[in-house]
Amino acid sequence: MSQQNSNSSSNNIPVSEVYWTLVAKADKKFSKIRDLPYYQRNRYDTYFYKVFKVYTQLWKFQQENRQKLVEAGLKRWEIGDIASRIGQLYFGQYMRTSEASYLSESYIFYEAVLTREYFKDGMFQDVNLSNKQLRFLARFMTVCLVLNRHDMVFQLVNQLKMLLDECKRAFQENDFKEWKLVVQEIVKFRKAYPAFMNIRPLRYSVVLDLHPDCLPQVVEAKRKLRLRDALLCSYHPNEVKYSELTLDTFRMLQCLEWEPSGSFYQTGGVPPSGVGTGIGQNGAPGPSRVNYSQDISDPTLPPNPRKSILYRPSVTNYLAVEVFKYPFNIFYNDTPKVGILLSRAGD
């Protein structure tokens, strides 16, 4: 009887109240992992699955109750904010695990936000909404750079420039000084990115390169090592970079990943209409868990080595990352035979 009363009372709670409770819960959990460094993987994994579970519930709930929520005052930018955060979660998990499926899912959600123009309405009347759109474009560009989606990077750079010009006319120009530097960084980065990079990928490609079994045999060492982790650092003064991704670390990042079969030749990617992402004109239903990389991944390839990227770290920070991520006992003979690559670019 008490259970029936409990269910009855929960059913009487307004849909909007349930939604905003979920939003508050998701915001609280998201804030716990947003600023965690990428090298704290074990600690992050626990948080990731908890916060992702909440955002999955939130996304599903707003899909199933869209009309009621819109009538209660739900705005399109709020839907886009959820999708953008899910994309941000996926990219963060990719940076910690180097699993390409997370990177592909991040692209799916970001591309859906872009094509649906979730942040468009009222953007030039609300400076906070304009900054939200600018941050979204900047994050999406990072995903596209790592995915080698040069066509989309070009499109996003143009959108960022136009949006910044409009924001300067609509608001105080001083509010957008830092975004001028962001535009300068990505423009310099693209200019420094050699033209021959468009000819073939830097990383190993099962389409273009010989199968590992066809390569010349190398005398087997007594102690076989498997590359498991890579620590990529850059110290050059005034180096070409976008955000904290320098050109040197970007090239190393590309070299340390396997190219999924056929992905280099897949020019279409996600359809601009949102078909394939599972997101319709009104934003529902949401993207599927596996989509973009499902048909091009090669299960025979080994997993990507996990990578940590540090931009101009202090000695203390560098040593802290090494000790945290690579305990000293991995270097002893009685441990699994794994290799660690330390890449330092600097003068």
From TrEMBL:
InterPro entries to which the protein is assigned, alphabetical: SCAI
Domain of life (superkingdom): Eukaryota
Region named Disordered: 279-303
GO BP terms, alphabetized: DNA-templated transcription
GO molecular-function term, one example from the UniProt record: transcription corepressor activity
Pfam family, one: SCAI
Name of protein: Protein SCAI
Lineage: Eukaryota, Viridiplantae, Streptophyta, Embryophyta, Tracheophyta
